[in-house]
Every structure is written in structure tokens, then in C-alpha cells.
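Example 3.2
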Amino acid sequence: MEDTHPFERFIDFYFELGLNYKDIKTLLCSRHSFHISERHLKRVLSTRGHTRHKAYSDLAVLVEFIDNQLQYSGQLHGYRWMYTKCREHGLRVRKEDVHLVLKELDLRGVALRQARRFRRRNYFSKGPNFIWHMDSYDKLKPYGICINGSIDGFSRKIIWLNAYTTNSNPKVIGGYYIEAVQRLKGCPRVVRGDLGTENGHVRGFQRFLVPVAPNDTLESYLEGASTANQRIEYWWRFLRSQCLEFWLSLFADIRDNGYFDGGFLDKNLLQFCCMGLIQDELDDTAQVWNAHSIRPSTNINIPSGRPNVMYTLPELYGTRDFLCPTEEEHVEMCKTEWPFLNSQVREYVLAFSVSTYSPRTHGSTYPPRTRARTRDMYNWNTCIRDDVTGPEFLLPSPLNLTVSNML
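Structure, written as C-alpha cells:
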């Protein structure tokens, strides 16, 4: 088709996009400084053989195109999006035809879109201890407090929930796992963790304690993106709303008022003053969660009830406990890689904090057990910190110190 006017190729382009006359006229005026009346525009389109209601593509071609699209992400498209896609690929079709073809070829997808529901994969776990989901919570990490937890995929019972000075040390995370295995006298069939070096010891322990047969397609340890670890990711949202939002707000206030600069000493001050309280609240939240009632889900594969009951009485839900018994000597071999945390986990060390904040002087207990006492202790120690100068005050890593050897 020969152009008689330099703007006619733009008219062809906008018409093929499916724009109406008013939009074409506006674009020609605003983008190309070409003023044309709607009547003249229709005349130009007619002269160039463009028409809205004639020369539609063959219906068989439309069906074949939509069928090919439905094999991939096209199954997510509504008829309006599919209509635009057809026009982009050079098909001249009517929206009503696209709608009818989609209803025939993708009836279930049309029903889901009409109900405004996402098409999701349904979560499934065979029973308690079939899979544990583990992850770290990093929202408090800028303040020196690192949380790690694990949840049973079937019952949603919290297996462990610990606060410590790090959640990136694989030995520490491995210690949480071994402690749970010793307490339960067994390990799960599968552990699901995130990609990262912090889970390296758990990965090794799990594969050592639960060897997989050559013909078994399911590994004993699975890893992937954190966002896909849905069980524990959902629980972090619950934990924040019911527990950690208080601490996030408190620490943000301390930071905004100039009492926290993110340095080594300030982080250790918060660990010393708040770690015990946070661990107590984590324990209390986990206990309440394990005893509360989970409401029924539309997913028939997910049971409802109390996590403690679902975990200990799986026969009520037509399943069994998938706990894999472990040999004591095998667990002892794993423990050689486990740092001795139990005697240190609540002794959040800072030498000058212990030595300067005397319980006899301030009428307090160590560590502080209330919010007011925590704030008093932190404010007292920040005053001491501000008076301390010189590189000789720098301490070695707090993980290598205990309260007992500093007094």
C-alpha cells in the first residue's frame, strides 16, 4: 500500500493496535502534530482498505492461535487480554469470538477468573514429621538479634524458635536441629530450607541421619527460594503481628532518638538487655500457637485443628507419624559439629554492662525481665558507652565470652 501522506503509516499502525477513532485522532495531534478531523480519518482508513467490521480472520486460525497460547502462560489470560494479543499478532477478530473460543477451550480458567481466584498449587504434607520447614527471620538482625525457627508442615506445630546473636553460623543452626532431634528421638523424613551457607550443617545432618534409597525420588533435604517456603513464611507474618512488631517499634524509637548507631557496642547492649525478654516472648508465642485452633481450609489436603493434637494424634486425621528414628551414636557424631550453646544462649555478654550495671546498686535482676527495666539498663549502659574512649576497650567476639568469666 503506497503512502500518499507521511502520516498515513502512523494511521495504519494505530488502527492495527485496535485503537478507536478518537484515540487515533488524539495521538496524531499530540505525538505527531498532525491535526485531522474524525470524518477525514475515517475517509483515509476507508481509502487504505481498513474497516472495523469486515475481513475478519478465519475462525479456525483464531482457534489454533488461542489453543497454542493456552499451552503456556496464555492460560492465565482473560478474553480482553487474549483479544489484544490476537490483534498484536495480526489477527482481525471480534472480542465476542475470542470470549466464546476461550469458554470452549479453557472452561475451568474462565470460571476461576470469574470467581476472581488465583490458580495456586495446593500444599500437601503426608503427616506429622514428614517435612519440617526451617528459615531465619532477619527483621531484627540490624539490631543484633537473629531468630531462627522450624515448623511441621502437616500440623503447623513449632519445632523450634530461637533468638541468638547470629543466624548465619551453620553450626548454630545445626545445633537447633540436633537439639530438636534429641528431644523428639528422631528426625523428619524431609527438611526444607533456603539456599544459603547457614543451612549447610542441617543439610549434612539430615542426609546422614535419613539416607535415601537409590530408587527414591524424594531427597531427605530440599532447598529453594525463601519465598517458596510457604509454611514458615506465613508463620513469620503471624509472629510479627502477634509479637515482634512491639520490638521493631521499640528498637526503631531507640534508633530514631539517637541511642543506637548500629555499631558493635550498641548491638551488644541490645542483646544484653533484650535477648532474654525476646526469647521468653518467642517461647510464649510458640506455646500459644501450638495450642490454638486452626480454622478449616478450602484445601482438603490441609487438616484443621490444634497443632499439638494434629502432631501427637495423627490417626484422628487418617495418617501416621513419619518420624524417622535415629541411632544415638549417629546423633553423637553430629554433635561434634554442634557448639555448646546451652550455657551461653541467655548470657548476652558485654563486660562493662555486667560490671557497671550492678543489681545491688540499681535494684534490678540480671538479665532485665520487664520493658521498663530493660529501657533503664539500656540507657544506663549507653551513658557508660559514651564515656568510654580508646581502642583498648574493643572486646573479642561476644560468642567466646560468658558472664561467669567476666565477673
